[in-house]
Request: fold
Amino acid sequence: MPVSTTAPLIVFVNGYKYVDEKADPEMTLLVFIREVVGLKGTKLGCGEGGCGACTVVVGKMNLRTKRPIHYSVNACITPIGAVHLKHVITVEGIGNVRRPHAIQSALAAYHASQCGFCTPGFVMSLYALLRNNPKPTEHELEETFDGNLCRCTGYRPILDATKPFACPMGSKCCQNGGKGNGDDCKPCNSDFEYDPSQEIIFPPELALILDGGAMKLSVFRGPRVKWIMPTSKDELLDVLRMYPNAKLVNGNTEVGIELKSGKVLYDVQVYLGNIQDLSDIYFMSNGMQVGANVTLADLQRALKREISKFESLPCSYQTRSMEAVESMIRWFAGNQIRNVSTWAGNLATASPISDLIPVLSVCQAQLTIHGKNSLRRQSVKDFVVGYRKTTLRPGEAVTSIFIPFN
Ligand code: FES
Ligand code: FES
Reply:
């Protein structure tokens, strides 16, 4: 598709299809849910990704594995274009007053909601965890709320309401009420059983649309902003040759806040979230290669998995860099932000409060930077040259990073 042709926006919300022929890329997912779809359960609090009141779950088809993945996001800073051909699940989609979801019942039973403003956000954060991990440990349950704030209930009743969903065995849960794993097994039966088989499914119509090859270079044009979505590195570089000064956007966790001030406007924005060939992580004997599209949450999961492989070795230098990076990611914002923001975005914004620039610099990490007809490598230390300044030239994009085991 030429970048002058505009595509209709297709989004599924709680299983229902919405098509907008003239989607304005400046609209956020939160405004779409509340004003266009008319569901008011998802709340607007801070409007900048800090409080979690607007948390919803996004279902996205992994086009390689053909399996959907689910993750929580802050709808207040998610541009509507970022959920094109995705499934959005809001608090109304999982239960209602007559048939509440087990999470909603537990929060009510444990008096974990007072004014209730934050509650839909807490519900959806916990829902995202259970969709991926039906039997989490208590520690995993506590960590799932690191992007949600409550101003009036206090966190003790909220945490207590999550306990019925925990299993001391975590992912090794026998799913059989404490009768399945021999002597080690500890029962985790409770009144609020989470039943994954009853969850809202990925819309079959959307799966069919995606199967038909609908995920391709798309463009949305609003009154002030053009939003371009390439699906491969080559398409990205072609787009950047046409628009060398376009703003690259992925999680929108930095650009979204900038735009909110109203003092800046990026009239051409290129969304990177659909580029599959920049989403890989390779572990080698001397280090790891990470694509620019890898989110912080995916990187953290991959690092944890890899580090655990070295656990039985008494001394393994390979894990030092990995542990250093993993330990920084843990303190990076909340789950909803880490689910969509990328390490490359954090570096490219060259923020003085970047969580990753110091650790990647001392790890002597090397960036790969592509232009349409150019390729160069540079250390993270040399890449950042000042306050919000990098060596990135018009038409270039960071495509991967090599983090050596040193
Ligand atoms: Fe606070 Fe979205 S409204 S994170
Ligand atoms: Fe009031 Fe959480 S219940 S803000």
Remarks:
- The chain has a mean pLDDT of 91.
- Residues 94 and 286 are 45 Å apart (CA to CA).
